[in-house]
Amino acid sequence: MRRTRILTVLLALAAGLLAGSPPAASAAEPAPRADVAADSYTWKNARIDGGGFVPGIVFNRTEKDLAYARTDIGGAYRWQEESHTWTPLLDHVGWDDWGHTGVVALASDAVDPDRVYAAVGTYTNDWDPTNGAVLRSADRGASWEKTDLPFKLGGNMPGRGMGERLAVDPHDNDVLYLGAPSGHGLWRSTDAGVTWSEVTAFPNPGNYAQDPNDTSGYASDNQGITWVTFDESTGGGAGTATRTLYVGVADKENAVYRSTDAGATWERLAGQPTGYLAHKGVLDAENGYLYLAYSDTGGPYDGGKGRLYRYATATGTWTDISPAAEADTYYGFSGLTVDRQRPGTVMATAYSSWWPDTQIFRSTDSGATWSQAWSYTSYPDRENRYTMDVSSSPWLTWGANPAPPEQTPKLGWMTEALEIDPFDSDRMMYGTGATVYGTENLTNWDAEGGTFAVEPMVRGLEETAVNDLASPPSGAPLLSALGDVGGFRHTSLTEVPSMMYTSPNFTSTTSLDFAETKPDVVVRAGNLDSGPHIAFSTDNGANWFGGTDPSGVSGGGTVAAGADGSRFVWSPEGAGVQYTTGFGTSWQASTGLPAGAIVESDRVNPATFYGFKSGRFYVSTDGGATFTASAATGLPAGDGVRFKALPGGEGDVWLAGGAADGPYGLWHSTDGGGTFTRLPGVDAADTVGFGKAAPGASYQTLFTSAEIGGVRGIFRSTDAGATWTRVNDDAHQWGWTGAAITGDPRVYGRVYVATNGRGVIYGDTSDTGGGTDPGPGPDPTPTGACEVTYTVTNQWPGGFQADVRLTNTGTSAWNGWSLDWSFPGGQEVTRMWNAEHTQAGTSVTARNVGWNAGVAPGASVGFGFTGSRSGTNAEPEGFAVAGRACPTAT
């Protein structure tokens, strides 16, 4: 993937999120509160494995196999050694704090490995409405506490691959340092991250910005303090702060500072190189060397020149240990790591060597000599020290067939995260713009003629931004439109697709649709540096061919397929709305519909299309040739709207959207958009989609990402919006979910949710349906039969996490419930979500919260908790509801 392609995509993602970011709840047109029931859903990712930039990987220095990864927009993850998978840690981040899914730094506590910290915040400009925060966890990320900061952080800003900006003192682990952007300087906590104050003695807040003339504030922000490194050899013993620490600053003339008195005073390191930014500073305390990776820019896309230096901490001697002459570099250095088991072994990456490939360098003599992952034999032929197997993520080849010296799959790009396992010299992981790669036989590199094996180590880490979703009635159950990697035809939700959409490969697919009565006909629109911005398929998205762009098209926009696949309407960027019969070999300008309008099709009448722009709804009954504004009033005035027509219901249209300063909610039309009725009780809604009707129901199931009854969440209705069920919970929120949602026409209750950085989430219900959603029943407490499912989802030394599902197996609805049990092993609940709890000795009681009190016969309710343990973690005994024994499911 070329440098310009990644840059264009990521900037587009940033702008796209800005345009669709969640507005505050509207004060206009207050609606009555709706009764909201709850259902217990099981949530998973439609597997893609990776798909985005991983700028940081952190290994704990005192506990084997404990590692974390951070992403720029998709949260943080913990490594699971048993399964070689990653577990997401920030799914609890909600709509209002969506920016906290961007992680700019991670720190794992070497003194107490249960402690982990994350510095979160996505943008430092006004794209992100909230300030940054430091999250702290005492159970390895299973639960978190938060301290808000008085400034913003930039997990998706330029310079995000430098670091780590957050560090825990290896001797006094109540002391942490955080490097801030935007001129806010260096910050310190002395109470394990609870409170923070600026280190006023630190002399330099940085001055480097990627583009000082950028008026958006994105590229013009001062990248600030970029990393903090402790010299653990200077500790005064446990509980005494480390005396010497080094700090990197985004300042090409003054990049590295040192304190030798635990942060009281600071000095610029004398004799340091200038003209570069220090992306990383990694200390080999045993040999007394601080290694530094330099680039002439902040990354992660750019970098024309770079150097590697070694600083002798005892003598102050600087040595240029670069593996190439400065004149021969066309890239910056960033990824940097040392082998803690073999002092003197150091590795680095040429992170911005986009063509023909990234480069990885290795030295076993403290940088005196180097070898590299690949080299030319006789140009353009090259010889690799590695083998590469991407069969677990086959799309990483991008379907490419490049000419030498390029290869497919590539070794990587944007390779700013590089770490050797501190307990295993054979294991290394590194992040790229699309995945995490790793090896478990790294030392083969050093053998004459030896090769080490590289493969994806990314399962469970899902980091795509989702722009659109479709679930056809036949063929593949899911089609996705994604940023950066284009999108996939998901024939299986539990297996990685073999390839993204190709012919053409859009950098970002902005919209897709299928013909409702001929679902093998699919259309997608997207962004591409050069080539068509629209493509068609006649085999349900398995194979594609490009259409022809009308004059002026610069981006994908939105596209709609007629119900029978005979015609299409396209609203691209850079040109007015267009329509065509056939597959886009020629286009005609539509009239009556403004440029930039959102377009959709009626799902029954192939000649009917709909549009929306700036508060007006438009209808075409001649295949998109002409549109007429409807008389509907009271709709949202802005363009933060998404709407869809009901499959099988001609003229049945649902519209969601709004803004803080006007109407904001969910509207329904049964006359083809002529009039709309706002649904009462829906405070705000941003997406709408349809799924299979519930058993006995006459109307398809509705899904929406909305605020209903004062609660933000993912909601389902089986009675055309009369009543609603919240189907997610506080542990499963995924930040911003306002791009798209759809049910599955073949599986009742299944919903696909678009996230901005956590990929495609899908949920399946425990509710068997019944025509309407369960509401409060007549009984104040449960009196019928019940069943419990208790599952330990994660455990570690001294702690664990568990999920509990309580099912009403009786014949009467519950309106309030409490579940009692006893722990046989002395376990103690430390935090519970989706239920309130009390504990006395070994006895625990979990009670409903307000929104999940109602449980219909046959339905379930779920909650989860983290706990401490001192020994074995045996399953609880004596489950009971209202004194009635509750057997566990087998």
UniProtKB/TrEMBL annotation:
<dbReference type="Pfam" id="PF00553">
    <property type="entry name" value="CBM_2"/>
</dbReference>
<keyword id="KW-0378">Hydrolase</keyword>
<dbReference type="InterPro" id="IPR008965">
    <property type="entry name" value="CBM2/CBM3_carb-bd_dom_sf"/>
</dbReference>
<feature type="region of interest" description="Disordered">
    <location>
        <begin position="763"/>
        <end position="783"/>
    </location>
</feature>
<dbReference type="InterPro" id="IPR012291">
    <property type="entry name" value="CBM2_carb-bd_dom_sf"/>
</dbReference>
<keyword id="KW-0624">Polysaccharide degradation</keyword>
<dbReference type="InterPro" id="IPR015943">
    <property type="entry name" value="WD40/YVTN_repeat-like_dom_sf"/>
</dbReference>
<keyword id="KW-0119">Carbohydrate metabolism</keyword>
<feature type="signal peptide">
    <location>
        <begin position="1"/>
        <end position="27"/>
    </location>
</feature>
<dbReference type="InterPro" id="IPR001919">
    <property type="entry name" value="CBD2"/>
</dbReference>
<feature type="domain" description="CBM2">
    <location>
        <begin position="779"/>
        <end position="889"/>
    </location>
</feature>
<keyword id="KW-0732">Signal</keyword>
<comment type="similarity">
    <text>Belongs to the glycosyl hydrolase 74 family.</text>
</comment>
<dbReference type="InterPro" id="IPR052025">
    <property type="entry name" value="Xyloglucanase_GH74"/>
</dbReference>
<keyword id="KW-0326">Glycosidase</keyword>
<protein>
    <submittedName>
        <fullName>Xyloglucanase</fullName>
    </submittedName>
</protein>
